[in-house]
Write a structure and sequence with these properties.
The protein has 138 residues and is of the alpha/beta class. 38% of the residues lie in helices and 16% in strands. The protein has one domain: 3-Layer(bba) Sandwich (FAD/NAD(P)-binding domain). It has four helices and six strands, in the order E-H-E-E-E-E-E-H-H-H. Strand 1, helix 1 and strand 2 form a beta-alpha-beta unit. Helix 1 packs parallel to helix 2. The mean pLDDT is 90.
Length: 138
């Protein structure tokens, strides 16, 4: 099995924790810095860059339509670590665990299902979602 290549774009506390956790992982995960979020090739399920990155973690804020502030249905293999949060360790742990699951499963793509994202957005609009967010990320 080949190494899962994960690219990180930008920096910040969540990115730093994710990078450290993935580098310490017993799984075969290669973490590399990438200059920017480019184009995702849906036929190969990877980002079009010279490093052959499968998954990207960016310090950009998530789009308005997102799940837990870390992923969006329309952006496969892309995680967002740039949303302002009071729980950087929880967010980083969630992202690192998701990436480790991709590696364990040998999957080529990770993507939030649209009904899950819609359900979360409905909850956030109705309640603000803060308490449930903290519980889900832990």
């Amino acid at each position: 099995m080949s190494s899962l290549r994960v690219g990180v774009v930008g920096g910040g506390p969540v990115i730093d924790i994710v990078r450290a956790r993935l580098r310490e992982s017993a799984l075969d995960i290669d973490v590399t810095a990438v200059a920017s979020v480019g184009h995702f090739d849906t036929t190969l399920d990877r980002w079009e860059d010279e490093a052959g990155v499968r998954i990207l973690v960016t310090s950009d804020p998530p789009p308005a339509e997102n799940y837990l502030g870390v992923a969006a249905h329309r952006h496969p293999n892309l995680f967002y670590a740039g949303a302002p949060t009071s729980w950087p360790r929880a967010v980083a742990g969630y992202l690192a665990a998701a990436i480790e699951e991709v590696a364990l499963a040998g999957a080529s793509r990770v993507q939030v299902r649209h009904p899950i994202e819609r359900s979360w957005l409905g909850y956030v609009r109705a309640t603000g979602g803060t308490r449930k967010l903290a519980r889900k990320l832990k």
